[in-house]
């Protein structure tokens, strides 16, 4: 592939850039110790992600739920999980703070250094289902070196809706084939492929903890395969 045609890298964030699961579990454990709550915090985090985010965004995309941004979807599920796990007595301020744990997610160990290398040659932007406030706060908290923050919120839909990917190219003032989507999830890459973006697959086998399985292999339709962001930077020539 002719790398000289690529001008911008658009990154999925949850799971690709940041370790959402590890961060959420740690904060839940801290809350449990401080308030005397005991629960299966890993199950809490996994359910929050799958039911409150992944399944909910799909329902919004299909029109089964009205438009809600990621913060609103997370809070909707959080209230249900607190009841399900028997966690009582949290004030509204404490619930809001807990819901904003998604604003405080920590990057994978290779992410920031790899991104700083890539930023020397490419424009770096988020292209995430996280809402604008979440993504900007996360960048500030984690020191993520974005040039630009773009969210599916801008078109009031969720990936892999093709409108999200096309929006990114349009707002960057670039044809889609000059933007490379970087993601740890193949459905995300397939959505980007539908509008003509280039594709970089960076699998994160530890995204879901010690669970085995997952589709982490390379495929012919993927333009660049890298085990982490440092290797991706090297393959992109920086």
Write the layout of secondary structure elements.
Elements: E1 8-11, H1 20-35, H2 41-62, H3 70-84, H4 92-99, H5 111-119, E2 123-128, H6 132-142, E3 148-151, H7 162-172, E4 179-183, H8 186-193, E5 198-201, E6 224-225, H9 229-235
Helix pairs in contact: 1-2, 2-3, 5-9
Plain-language structure description:
This protein is α/β, with parallel strands linked by helices and 238 residues long. The chain has two domains: 3-19 and 106-235, Rossmann fold (3-Layer(aba) Sandwich), CATH 3.40.50; 20-103, DNA polymerase, domain 1, CATH 1.10.150.240. 45% of the residues lie in helices and 11% in strands. The chain is built from nine helices and six strands. It has helices spanning 20-35, 41-62, 70-84, 92-99, 111-119, 132-142, 162-172, 186-193, 229-235, and strands at 8-11, 123-128, 148-151, 179-183, 198-201, 224-225. Strands 3-2-1-4-5-6 form a six-stranded parallel β-sheet. Strand 4 (179-183), helix 8 and strand 5 (198-201) form a beta-alpha-beta unit. Helix 1 crosses helix 2, helix 2 (41-62) crosses helix 3 and helix 5 packs parallel to helix 9 (229-235). It is globular, with a radius of gyration of 18 Å. The model has no long low-confidence stretch (mean pLDDT 96).
| Count of individual domains | 2
In CATH, the architecture of the largest domain is 3-Layer(aba) Sandwich
* Amino-to-carboxy terminus distance: 16 Å
List the quaternary state of the chains: single chain
The major β-sheet equals:
6 strands, parallel
Order of helices and strands: EHHHHHEHEHEHEEH
> How large is the radius of gyration?
18 Å
Give the rounded overall mean pLDDT. Answer: 96
Strand line-up across the major sheet: 3-2-1-4-5-6
Counting DSSP E segments of at least 2 residues, the number of strands comes to 6
CATH fold field value of the largest domain: Rossmann fold
The percent of residues in helical segments reads 40-55%
Number of helices: 9
Which strand-content bin applies to the residues?
Answer: 5-15%
